[in-house]
Amino acid sequence: MTTNCGPILIVDGDRSRASVVELLQQAGYVCREAERGEEALESAREELPGLVILADVLQGMASYELCRSLRDEFGEMLPIFFLSRTRKAPLDSVAGLLLGADDYIVEPFSPEEFIARVRRAVTRAAAIGSISGRLSHTLTGREVEVLDGLADGLSQKQIAEALTISPATVGTHIQRILGKLDVHSRAEAVAVAYRRGIVSRIPIGREAEAPATP
What we know:
Number of domains: 2
Strand order of the largest sheet: 2-1-3-4-5
Order of helices and strands: EHEHEHEHEHHHHH
Low-confidence stretches: 202-214
CATH topology of the largest domain: Rossmann fold
Largest sheet: 5 strands, parallel
Shape: elongated
Helix content: 40-55%
Mean pLDDT: 82
Structural class: alpha/beta
Radius of gyration: 19 Å
Strand content: 5-15%
CATH superfamily of the largest domain: Response regulator
C-alpha cells in the first residue's frame, strides 16, 4: 500500500535511473523524471513531489547545489534522498545529510530496504502535513513559512533574514501565495490563512487585539 502523496521525482543524468523508476512504479508510486537540476526545480514548482531522489550523476547544477535549492524553496517538509553511485565514503554521506537530505543511499542497495525507506519518508511527510493542516492547500513548505512570517507581522526583509534567503526570493514566494490563495494583498492572504487553519498564531503586535480570556 502506498501513501497518497505527490509524485516521486527522480533526478538522475544516468540512463540507469530507469531501474529505480521501475522499482518505485512496481511499489505503486507515480514517478516523474529529470536529468538536470534546473529541470528538476521547474518540475517541483509545477507539482510538489512527495519525495525527491537525487543521484550524484547530474548535468549542469550539481546534486548538492540542487538539494540546497530545494530546501531553500520548499522548506523542511519535502523529503529528499541522495542516491549515490560514486560517492560512497562516510564523509560523503555526512555532507549530504548536513546539506539537508533526509537519507543517503549507496548503490548497490536492497530493493526491499529502499522501498521501505521511501515508504517511511512519504508516510511521515504526509502525516505531518495532515496534522498541521497543510494538505488542505497547495502551498509548499517554504511558502507556508513565508506566510507564517507575514502573519507574525514581519517585513519582507525580516522574513528573508529569518529563513536565510534573499528578500527577492521572499517576494517571489509572496506572489505565488497570493495566486494560490486567490487573493490580492498580503493582509487578505493572512486572513484566508487563519480561516483555513494554515496559520494559527496571533501576529506579533496584535496581542492587544485578541479577546481577553474570561
